[in-house]
Amino acid sequence: MSTRANRAPVLGLRENAAQFALLVAVNALVGGMVGQQQTVLPLLAESTFALTGYAYIFTYVAAFGVTKAIANYFAGTFSDRYGRKPVLLVGWLFAIPVPIMLIVAPNWAWVVAANVLLGINQGLTWSTTVVMKIDLVGPDRRGLAMGLNEAAGYGAVAITSLLAGYLAEQHGLRPAPFLLGLAYLALALLLSGAFVHETRDHAHLEATQHTESEHGHLGADLTSRQIAIQTSLKEPALASASHTGLVNNLNFGLSWGLFPLLFATADLTTSQIGLLFALYPGVWGAGQLITGGLSDRIGRKHLITTGMAVQATALAVIAASSGFTGWAVGTALLGAGTAMVYPTLLAVIGDIAHPLWRGRAVGVYRVWRDLGYAVGAILGGVVADLIDLRAAVWAAAAASACTAVLVAIRMYETHQPLRHHD
């Protein structure tokens, strides 16, 4: 195994198929750590801890989003400085207490604290697997690589949400659903520690082959501050991607805390709520198997614009519905719109960022994107408390529609369709 790990790096999906597949599996376990709690925690808040204020219930989503956003930044910085694999392993160490804390939590503060640790875990591990896959595949297949990565992660969120809902209905809200997290954690530590190889040398190899893009190149020697400014504000494609990512995860954060409570107003069973919630990341995850590679062939911009418009439509359907069928249509449509956007935004970052500061650019983008969890939780909680649950969904629909318009105006196309494979 050491011979394989130390041999000269080669770029390409086919050339790195074994490591790529292993990283896909690891990212599925990352997603599963979130899925174990998504269906269960809002119900636990009401039934076990007697919490009724929506803003208070959503504190765990906000805590998760803020800590994940911060961890994303450090994941990018440390992976460029020290390598990808050490960051991945440290990320998994932060997850060790999470399932246990959720099982034994005597009050809601323990749940919030567990989600702080989970946010650090998700930021370090998910960011690192993203960067590692981009390292391995090289410039031509970034969209496909991100589609496979995000499909694995959010497919696992969906499947685990469904399993957790079933276990909660059959065996109670605790401890059964969180035993899934313990199993995922043990397997992830084994795979990441024993079988995953470092990929930073692949990025260095790509840097030696890197050429100027037709849109102009930002250069290889930007400081971390300059990278943050370009990715957040100045560079039109990078900044548009960061803004769109925030609104996309605003929708996800709002759905995480709000959808189970909205669905419960129709007296649905726990397993039905779990199925409705699983539809969103399920369609999202499966759709990325198509949309990631599609962006390599047709370009990025139109998929992102269309995807945000579809999300706005889906949220309007959910807000206007009051039963299982309408909500199922809306959540499936929301997943389809998200599938168009999610891997494509990451591919945009890979298109523009120089290989030598790619990790930091991905980290800054993911800071903005994952702050959307907190913004969605706060927005959803405040609007739901002031007006009602449906008003919070309408607010998210409006934000998504505005984002579609802004992307259409500001973002340029960052990737030309594949030519040398025609």
Compact description:
Its main location: membrane. This protein has 422 residues and is mainly alpha-helical. The protein has helices at 2-6, 17-38, 40-47, 54-57, 59-82, 84-95, 98-104, 108-137, 142-171, 176-194, 200-209, 224-234, 236-264, 270-298, 301-320, 324-352, 358-386, 389-410.
Structure commentary:
It is a multi-pass membrane protein. It is found in: Cell membrane. It is a single chain. The protein is mainly alpha-helical and 422 residues long. It has one domain (15-201, 226-410): Growth Hormone, Chain: A (Up-down Bundle). It is built from 18 helices and no strands. It has helices spanning 2-6, 17-38, 40-47, 54-57, 59-82, 84-95, 98-104, 108-137, 142-171, 176-194, 200-209, 224-234, 236-264, 270-298, 301-320, 324-352, 358-386, 389-410. Helix 2 (17-38) runs antiparallel to helix 8 (108-137), helix 2 (17-38) packs parallel to helix 9 and helix 8 runs antiparallel to helix 17. The chain starts with a helix and ends in a 12-residue tail after the last helix. Mean pLDDT is 88; it is low at 1-5 and 212-216.
Query: Percent of residues in helical segments?
Result: over 70%
What is the count of DSSP helices, taking H or I runs of 4+ residues? 18
The parts where pLDDT drops under 50 for at least 5 residues are: 1-5, 212-216
CATH class: Mainly Alpha
What summary fits the major beta sheet?
Answer: none
Within CATH, the superfamily carries the name: MFS general substrate transporter like domains
The total number of structural domains is: 1
N-to-C series of helices and strands: HHHHHHHHHHHHHHHHHH
The CATH architecture term is: Up-down Bundle
